[in-house]
Amino acid sequence: MAETGLRGPDTTTEDGFLGGRLRLRQYATGHRAGHDAILLAASTRAKAGDRVVEFGAGVGAAGLALARRVAGIDLVMVEIAASLAELASDNAAANAIAARTVVLDVAGSAEAFAAAGLPPDSADAVLMNPPFHDAVRHRGSPDPVRQAAHLATATTLEAWVHAARRLLKSGGTLTMIWRADGLAEVLSVLGRGFGSVMVQPVHGNADKSAIRILVRATKGGRAPLLLLPSLLLNGPSEQPDPVARAVLAGEQILPLAQS
Q: How many CB atoms lie within 10 A of CB 136?
């Protein structure tokens, strides 16, 4: 699929993740990988031999962080912007991680996915960090790559979840991160074809409302909703919480990846 004009600036930086065990090149301006990608990777359950597909991979931060933790997964990174997909592929090679990158619109047809080697019922796990800011309430960045990565349309969530449902095997898991005030929307969309939903709120500070939710759902699952204890990023003194620090350093995983 064509890149449709989504191209970032040429200048890149090299940044360390997981305590320096993962080095990623990314554009100096525009959308840049950060905490959300690492929290998503730390919430994704996978084992060696699993076909794992990352939607909206960007430069590959979440998928490659997962592959660094779980050796032997069959990782496919899906990204609409060819410039970012190229960086993701380069990052995989630079970190000696086996992965395949596909330039593809997540909201594309089943035929487009199949042509890219991603037929229905072929994945064990999908992880995704979709654009989740409401375009009505948030001013879009002038940078087209950053805007596409951040601003959701009215159909973004439904389209991405539908694509995950089609791609996953029965019993496969979808793991995602979304803004906390969109929980009702997430649960509504997951109600079609998913169950056994687990939710972990993420708080920036103990005295503030949650800013993100980490969600895992199982295709065809039947267990009731499970609300997990919150993850706190910063303690009362504004210092990183020890659990969050360990997760971001790749030393600990989150509950969604454990059970």
A: 7
Look up residue 128 and give its amino acid: M
CA–CA dist 13, 108 (Å, integer): 31
What phi and psi values does residue 162 have, to the nearest 5 degrees? -60, -45
Task: For the chain of 259 residues, list the mean pLDDT of each consecutive stretch of 10.
Answer: 45 95 94 94 98 98 98 98 97 98 98 98 98 55 46 81 98 98 97 97 94 98 98 88 96 94
| Cβ(130)–Cβ(178) below 8 Å | yes
Q: Scanning the structure block, which residue is given the tokens 């596909």?
A: 102
Structural domains of the chain, count: 1
Distance of CA 46 to the CA centre of its chain: 14
Q: The domain that contains 169 carries what CATH number?
A: 3.40.50.150
